[in-house]
Design brief:
Order of helices and strands: EEEEEHEHEHEHEEEEEEEEEEEEEE
Structural class: mainly beta
Largest sheet: 6 strands, mixed
Oligomer: single chain
Distance between the termini: 32 Å
Shape: elongated
Helix content: under 10%
Number of helices: 4
């Protein structure tokens, strides 16, 4: 076996990343967080426009809200002072719109995205919730937020079948996050919501009418296209972290491998073939995503410069 060398550790749970920020169409700033093989935003979405610049309509009237069949957002309890902490609430028509409510290169997670997250953290209890009672009004003693996800209880706005259609369930009680996945038993009527409990911090999917207003967390688009992620490839890197120069260690790929380096925002900054030395000395000191391609497989790692 011929060895080369490089610096990094596999994309693992990493809550305390000094990472690049992500900015949406309105200039709101978010923090990316790596959990397993995914990159999530640490804050609830606040955008009032789609990523192409089109406005998302807003609606304060309860009766009109519960009867909508077009994209809309609102502020919880129609109170703009809550946006900074809890983000905004969106109906599913905004979530599903092809103009994309998340920043460019990010999307509303599917049900499968959420399953991948919770499977990685299993048992998930308490690992997603922000700790303490600054935002969670119920007992929150089991919360560790060890994932760094920092789930906040943004409440919801009711849809047409609720006893109080269009009214708000206030912030502080529980977290409800939209998925982009429709419920196959109620196509055109309901979509899945990821509900995160107070108290024990457990999670469950619930089918919700599309008129409901709920929080959104965005997830980074996959960087791997059709390639199969293979974390069993014998790929190592050192030193990590480093001052910017890394050595890649990998098995004998017969000089048929490609290396790409991305920022956490998804911008590719480096691509090279069959060369094991990675030089990031001229780039900002931060975390990067490394991809090593071999045949139809890709190995994903993270590397930090300091």
């Amino acid at each position: 076996m011929r060895l080369f060398i490089l610096s990094i550790c596999t994309l693992l749970l990493s809550p305390n990343i000094k990472s690049q920020s992500v900015v949406d169409i309105d200039g709101n700033v978010y923090t990316p967080i790596i959990i397993g093989h995914q990159v999530w935003l640490k804050e609830n979405l606040k955008a009032t426009r789609f990523s192409n610049g089109d406005s998302i309509p807003t609606e304060e009237n309860d009766f009109i809200w519960q009867s909508l069949s077009t994209p809309a957002y609102c502020n919880s309890s129609n109170d703009t002072s809550l946006v900074a902490d809890y983000g905004r609430l969106y109906n599913w028509f905004a979530v599903a719109d092809t103009r994309n409510i998340c920043p460019v290169n990010w999307h509303v997670p599917t049900k499968e995205d959420w399953i991948q997250l919770t499977d990685f953290l299993a048992p998930v209890e308490g690992k997603l919730n922000e700790t303490g009672n600054a935002h969670w009004i119920w007992a929150n003693g089991t919360a560790t937020n060890s994932s760094g996800f920092t789930a906040l209880p943004g409440g919801f706005r009711a849809g047409p079948t609720n006893s109080y259609p269009g009214e708000f369930n206030p912030v502080g009680g529980a977290a409800y996050f939209w998925t982009s996945t429709e419920d196959p038993e109620y196509l055109g009527q309901k979509a899945f919501s990821q509900y995160i409990y107070p108290n024990d911090g457990g999670v469950t999917f619930i089918p919700v009418f599309m008129q409901y207003g709920q929080s959104v967390r965005c997830i980074r688009d996959q960087l791997t296209s059709v390639n199969k992620i293979d974390q069993n490839l014998d790929v190592k890197v050192y030193p990590n972290p480093s001052l910017g120069r890394f050595q890649l260690v990998l098995p004998d790929f017969q000089n048929n491998y490609t290396i790409e380096i991305y920022t956490l925002n998804g911008t590719r900054i480096l691509k090279q073939e069959n060369h094991s030395i990675i030089n990031l000395m001229d780039y900002p000191k931060q975390m990067y995503v490394l991809k090593v391609y071999y045949l139809d497989r890709v190995h994903i790692l993270k590397v930090t410069t300091q």
